[in-house]
Amino acid sequence: MTSLVVAEHDNRILADATARTITAARALGQPVEVLVAGHGCQAVADAAAGLDGVDTVLLCDDPLYAHPLAEPFAALILSLAERWDAVLAPATSHGKAVLPRVAALLDVPQISEITKVLAPDTFERPVYAGSVMATVKAPAGKLAITVRPTAFAAAGAAPAPAPILSLPAGPDPGLSAFAGETLSQAAGPELTSSKVVVAGGRGLGTADNFQLLAHIAGRLNAAVGASRAAVDAGFAANDCQIGQTGKVVAPELYIALGISGALQHLCGIKDAKTIVAINKDDEAPIFQVADLGLVADLFQVLPEIDAELARRGYN
Amino acid sequence: MNVMVPVKRVVDYNVRVRIKAAAVDLANIKMSMNPFDEIAVEEAVRLKEKGKADEVVVVSVGPRDCIETLRTALAMGADRGILVACDGAIEPLAVAKLLKAVCDTEKPGLVLAGKQAIDDDCGQTGPMLAALNGWAQATRARSLEIDGTSARIERETDRGTESLTLRLPAVVTTDLRLNEPRYISLPNKMKARQKPIAETTAAELGVDITPRLTVLDVAEPAPRAAGIKVKSVGELFDRLHAAGAL
Ligand SMILES: Cc1cc2nc3c(=O)[nH]c(=O)nc-3n(C[C@H](O)[C@H](O)[C@H](O)COP(=O)(O)OP(=O)(O)OC[C@H]3O[C@@H](n4cnc5c(N)ncnc54)[C@H](O)[C@@H]3O)c2cc1C
């Protein structure tokens, strides 16, 4: 029997979250199969086959999977249930939507957003916005797991590519239809895998200041992040939100500008290597977790940072 | 069309829980309706106000204290409540099964649920319920329009936003940007006391709610050590360079 990893991709590029989920799957000690369901997604299957620790890639290339609809993806995974003991998906907007359907129809509990594999049936996961880490043991039977990608290293390149097995499409539940999407305009690296993240909060005050923040991020080749308050205020797109109910990041360097440091935000950044905070309130909770803090008014400091980076040759 | 909204009683989002005697200490802690469920109740009530829904039924699974949570939803404008009384830990799969049983008799045209509960952060109940019912789902909704037998949802994804058309009945889970829940006025609070709350149990609904997972341990993560304050932007970047962080 095997561990099945549900690949995250956009039909062209295999997301880094998949390589990290493969590492979690390897820890279960079973052969790993990666399911690439999509349309016109051969390149994604090839990329998955090139990752270390992958035994087989299952490619299901069909218009039914052109868009990541939860119902047909769950139906496909269920139709393959005889192949696998455990199914793992990255805890992305797609993985989180699909996996509970699979678990429910197999009548098994799901273990959400694991951060460690302690034994093949025992996992660590955060609860209460990361205020508590719980160790949970699953019962005998099939496992359904979502994986917090930042908690696992990415699988590297394989010495030789794994075989790719083509599968016919699964059933079409015909319950929902894709009706368009608006991709975020964010330039630069992807937020959850970027080495540097520059994030802004309500303290930026205006959308113009947020533009300046994005410009500074560009100089550092950093991804742009935001607090919920900055997203709610319309300064940043929803997919920039970091925290308990947004994305989790673990960059080398996290720079928080005008973010107070609410629990719901901090749990999304706690694994950053270095945290920098700039805030005009020297009692802001963000300073309790920051490695380097600067108490200053952003209206004054943002242009200074921009000039300083220009002076240091960050174009 | 009736709209059903499951509401969970959780530790208030402003409270930081602690571990005491190898368990999460919930003694004398402020409890509230899960914020995402509040957004779901608000949306359901707005659907009723727009004439798109006939009745809003709220359901809570948990101890008798959940009646308070149901009353809050009734004060926001829901019509009646159902308490599925049970004590002790209850997992999302069991909750989904209980809600499925309630759906079988209530026959809602739409279930509006929160995208996650802020205590266990599982985010499973909505999609599980949709699957058990054989229904469509849309998680993380930021807008919702009902049009006869279908719903048009805009949902927040990791890449931006996505629009879906769902066949009804369906389960839609709410995200933060869907709406801003209303304040409850005193008259509405009074009115809510008159609204009916029915009670049932897992046994009556024929659902086995025995937990399947074993929690072996709960612990507070090691706190991050606080760092230092710098005096200027120049010093900040000097230090980042010296530390190799840039
Ligand atoms: C259900 C739920 C889910 C949530 N999920 C998330 C989540 O995923 N992510 C998240 O981030 N939040 C989340 N929140 C919200 C969270 O509780 C906080 O409200 C939010 O993080 C605050 O954002 P902020 O720090 O930008 O704003 P504020 O808390 O308002 O802080 C603004 C900061 O800017 C500083 N400031 C103001 N002006 C200036 C200036 N000129 N120069 C320098 N500094 C200045 C202030 O001193 C202050 O510290 C959630 C809340 C709920 C209820």
Strand line-up in the sheet with most strands of chain B = 11-10-9-12-8-1-6-7-13
**Percent of residues in beta strands of chain A:** 25-35%
Which sheet architecture does the biggest sheet of chain B show? Answer: 9 strands, mixed
CATH class of chain B: Alpha Beta
The number of distinct helices of chain B, counting runs of at least 4 residues, comes to 7
Instruction: Give Rg of chain B in angstroms.
Output: 21 Å
Number of domains as seen in the coordinates of chain B: 1
Q: How would you describe this structure to a colleague?
A:
- The complex is a heterodimer of chains A (315) and B (246).
- Chain A is built from 8 helices and 16 strands.
- Chain A is α/β, with parallel strands linked by helices and 315 residues long.
- Chain A folds into 2 domains: 3-166, HUPs (Rossmann fold, 3-Layer(aba) Sandwich); 191-311, TPP-binding domain (Rossmann fold, 3-Layer(aba) Sandwich).
- Chain A has a 7-stranded parallel sheet, with helices on both faces.
- Chain A starts with a strand and ends with a helix.
- The mean pLDDT of chain A is 97.
- By secondary structure, chain B is an alpha/beta fold.
- Chain B has a single domain, classed as HUPs (Rossmann fold, 3-Layer(aba) Sandwich).
- Chain B has 7 helices and 15 strands.
- Chain B has a 9-stranded mixed sheet, with helices on both faces.
- In chain B, α2 (66-76) crosses α5 and α3 crosses α4 (125-133).
- Chains A and B meet through α3, α4, β5, β7 and β8 of A and α3, α4, β9, β10 and β11 of B.
- β8 of chain A pairs antiparallel with β14 (214-219) of chain B, so a sheet runs across the interface.
- Bound molecules: flavin-adenine dinucleotide (FAD).
- Flavin-adenine dinucleotide sits between chains A (201-203, 205, 227-230, 241-246, 258-260, 262, 264-265, 279-281, 284, 297-299) and B (13, 35, 118).
- Chain A: This is FAD-binding protein.
- Chain A: Residues 3-182 form the Electron transfer flavoprotein alpha/beta-subunit N-terminal domain.
